[in-house]
Amino acid sequence: MTPEQLSRIRQIYERALPLSGSDREAYLDQECRANDEIRKEVEGLLKGHERAPAWLEQPALGLAKAVLPPEAPKLEGRRVGGYTLIRETGRGGIGVVYLAERSDDTFRRQAAVKLVLPPANSHAVISRFQQEREILASLDHPNIAKLLDAGVTEEGWPFFIMEFVDGQPIDRWCDQRKLTVSQRLELFGGVVDAVQFAHRHLVVHRDLKPGNIFVTNDGIVKLLDFGIAKVLAPSKPGELPETLTLAGMMTPEYASPEQLNGTAITTLSDVYSLGVVLYELLTGHRPYRLLSAAVHEMVRVISEVEPIRPSEVVTTTEQAPVRDRRPITPETVSEVREGDPNRLRKRLAGDLDAILLTALRKEPERRYVSVESLADDLRRHLEQRPVSAREASPWERFRRFSQRNAGGLLAGGLILTLFLAGLASMALQVRHDVLAAQLNRDSFPFIVPFWLFTAGANVAALGAALYFAHPNRSQRLGVAAGALIWAGGVVARLSAERTMGLWRSRIDGNVDPFMLLAPWTWGIFWVYCAAQLLVVLMVGRRFGLAGQVLAIAVLSLFHAAHDRHLLGQSFPALHYQPGLLPMLASSAMVFAPGLISVLVMRRIGGPDVSGAHPGRHSVA
Known about the structure:
13 strands, 3 domains, alpha+beta
């Protein structure tokens, strides 16, 4: 939509808001009669307003004033807990923070002192303040600001003293140093580690945002402000419930849908907020564009609108959320990241798109199952390994494998070259032996090298197929069972073709010169069929059962044509009946057991669509 249309939507919405019933309908009919799209947007905003939780009707600014009015006393120069307060550095939801220095001459040390001052020191607020103090005392982690001391002033104002973090919010720190996407991900790993540590101690932060994530001048991440954190433990008898005022202390732009809608809060709420912070850190944009600063409008957008893909949002232009900042454009965003808009878009496409959109899913159960799973995917992405948030294509798996193992790939290429040279030598030797046996009945073709090379090639193909298909345990079992059926069908087909006269030996006195029906070749056929079924499994992930049936049909025609060319012309040991009908008959005898093997594979392993679930994957 154009800016004029958005302005028109907001104007109609604000005028329709105080109306109700038929008056509202009549007003909308009058204003929107020429544009159904604008009416649809306005009605969506009105419905979102009606569904908003009751506490959102109170202005966020009013809530902040109710907790901590600007008339709080000034305390510069006051001594608190052995520290002298120097200057105020910030005001949070339930306290004022001062920079302080140690009062004695033992050593110089700066610290941050947080106090609850009147008239905000109600019983509920003090209870929350004490909980924050207890949470900080239990969290000893290098990426979480440490608690140094705590107590109560002479006036009865509770306080605690924590290490002073001399740094900047993580987004500003990264932009000033023009960190690349990879460098930002590595730095963000410290944030994830801190949140993960808190979750292991049953603490949900609930207010993760760049302003609560500082980076020191030494590049160390520090997680701050557990003022509205939640302890995941049963409520104690007599424990005060959270008040509406405390509920309003969250930052709506970074809050999860369940926080805004007042439903159950779990560690997955922090997963969502981490996704928002990382989205902004990598793209320079927030996931949602808000038509209005009204809180109920934020609730509607965050709960209902899907975020734009990170690789797409960096190609757009929007007004900065802060008025004194310049507009966010592809050039300004890429300037402090990858240097070029197109390079940044390509860097975000694929894995990072999938990782961020998985973390930002509306339904908690569809996000990463834990912060640890999110951290694992970010680590795997940096290591050029497949991530759980999406199914990597076979080409992408090969590309990443080659990037991680350049030396190994070079060695593999040399081994493959030697293998092909040996294969060529073997082929010439077998062809010579077959031609010699046709001229001399006492000569017998030595084809053991042929089967040795065939077995080695099939095992290599099976290993490659296992790597690229990435099957789970039940799928591997299904492939093994299906390959057993298909290999049995291949052997039965060869026997039936000989009985029906579709092929015969060209060497007198030797009915099976290539030992096609020898028992020890059946195992080689099984490996060959298993590798092909893994390819069919990958086809099914994109095209379903229909694609798998078509793949089996193509492979069946390939089998028939390949056998006729290899054993009838390259190594002229067999004579095949000419014509299209014999070849189609051979294809049909391959297709039937192949189709049965696919059905068995799907029955045991399930109809695979990718097998990926955020946070659950096997190591590739």
